[in-house]
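Request from the bench team (R.T.):
"We need a structural guess for the complex before ordering more NAP. Sequence and SMILES attached. Just send the tokens back."

Command: build protein-NAP structure.
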Amino acid sequence: MAGVLARRKRPLLAIPLQISRFRALCENAGSRAGVSLIQGASRGLGLEFVRQLLERNSKDFVVATCRNPVKAENLAALKEQYPDRLQVLGLDVTDEDTIKEAANQVSKFHGPLELLVNTAGILHVENLVTPETSLSKLEKDALLLTFQINAAGPALVMKHMSPLLKSGGSREVPVIANLSARVGSIGDNKLGGWLSYRASKTALNQLTKTISIELARRRDPVACVLLHPGTVDTDLSKPYQRNVAKEKLFTKEFSVSKLLAIIDRVGMKDTGKFFAWDGQEIAW
Ligand SMILES: NC(=O)c1ccc[n+]([C@@H]2O[C@H](COP(=O)([O-])OP(=O)(O)OC[C@H]3O[C@@H](n4cnc5c(N)ncnc54)[C@H](OP(=O)(O)O)[C@@H]3O)[C@@H](O)[C@H]2O)c1
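Reply to R.T.: structure attached below.
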């Protein structure tokens, strides 16, 4: 009899505790609007990430970073449309102080992040970088600048922003998504060329994979993925679109909607992986 009473007592005590814990969890989840940070948001895919994130959810907040907010007219137009849900901050991936300052601002005004997307990248820069068609065209300054922007930049952004990524938002886990490119795959390299761009994306892949292992060991783990957007009609691909079949040249809208669908499904089982726009994993 005493045993039966004891067995009955436990659930009677446990249920109210579980309900109150459940309520607290629900209230927390409901009260914290998700904050996403899109780095490299002045144009191209970054700008489209900002637009779609703002459009698809009326609660979430977006921090958009770019080198020069004063000149970022498209972001200013979005800010007019979503004055309470968008903040634009300056951040140049080649200047670590600006990354640190942006992280301070986010921490001060927005608290935890649930998503960080690193999009800034270069393939060509007028008078500075031209994608190499042969080894004889390789130039040290162009190679180093490409590595600085495409590989070191996103890694430094991860360094300063990852402490702000926390669970408790609407996602299964907080996510870092870095825009890479299929040409960064060593296993997939059958054409050669574009030495600096390819190698910088390979470096980004290794940096992200390595950082993903560390961030998975945190008490509050973060999932890190690499994404290939397809060949997308942006300033970056404009000079090289001639040989791309029409059906293989994506719009920004299409590519970003596919990438967001992947990001929305990311869990810890996916961390450290490299996905194409269609969800297929890409060989290293
Ligand atoms: N488009 C494609 O077909 C394609 C294919 C594969 C991979 N990707 C990758 O996708 C990402 C986005 O490409 P996209 O096509 O959107 O390129 P995009 O239209 O040329 O935009 C590049 C973005 O990077 C920013 N950026 C450049 N240098 C920067 C710096 N030092 N600090 C901060 N931001 C900087 C630019 O800002 P400013 O306006 O200040 O210059 C711009 O917002 C890149 O990483 C690219 O490698 C693109």
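Two things stood out. Residues 2-31 form the longest helix (30 residues). The longest strand covers residues 61-66.
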